[in-house]
Amino acid sequence: MSKVYVSGKLVDKDQATVSVFDHGFLYGDGVFEGIRVYGGKVFLLVEHIDRLYESARAIRLEIPMSKADLTAAVNSTVAANGLSEGYVRLVVSRGAGTLGLDPRKTANPQIIIIADTISLYPAEMYQQGLKLITASTLRNHPQALSSRIKSLNYLNNILAKIEGSDAGCIEALMLNHKGEVAECTGDNIFVVQRGVLKTPPVDAGILEGITRNAVIRLAREATIPVTESTLLRHDIYVADECFLTGTAAEVIPVTSLDGRAIGLGKPGPITKDLLERFKKLTRT
Prior knowledge:
Layout: E1 3-6, E2 9-12, H1 23-27, E3 30-38, E4 41-42, H2 45-58, H3 67-80, E5 86-93, E6 96-97, E7 106-107, E8 110-116, H4 123-128, E9 130-134, H5 155-166, E10 171-175, E11 181-184, E12 188-193, E13 196-199, H6 210-221, E14 226-228, H7 233-237, E15 241-246, E16 250-257, E17 260-261, H8 269-283
Parallel strand pairs: 9-10, 9-16, 13-14
Antiparallel strand pairs: 1-2, 1-8, 3-4, 3-5, 5-8, 6-7, 10-11, 12-13, 12-15, 15-16, 16-17
């Protein structure tokens, strides 16, 4: 039986529990990271741990472990589950408290580490590409909640995901409050226009993805021009290529948006090249 790390202990998954009074459960009050495992090694763990602590600091949640100890806990959880290829969900909640929003009435923040396998998209999607629709649900306004906080509350993403599912699409594009392209429900988005790779900037209301940044580095190493610039849906409609990046998704082509074919309606050469480069980065 797989093991789950719950605040200092590895327990069988059916024994992994938190209090129903935990503010992570009651109010989505907490932060998390999703991390991949390749060849038994946790991919870009330092970057994920740093982002977790940054998110926690932003919501004034003190993680009751050092970065070094938490890193060791992630690695030991992966080892305990014998994972060669898999996915880690690292969660820190505010802890149990009374009913009501006041975080001062909580205690004992909970650290939970789940290490398991994951399959987000069917294999054929990486060959044929995804079809997207634009969701009417917007990204959270950045002055209400910073998009750089990877919080436990993903309700607006879930509502956009439902819109995509209702339209027969696995993913959906989300716009920000200015009508600009932000990201998809769980992935960052890139387009290729006349040989230039473009992706929305952080101030478009996106989560600065770890995989996004890795792909930008790979593109620059391959001398592919990269810009972080404001995108509209028009830019996707007229793009030569489009793809998404994310921890679980990795690099996956997009071939249509709102029923409009992107480019030739199939994965393009730069997308394929970056997908292969990413595979080499993670599996060698």
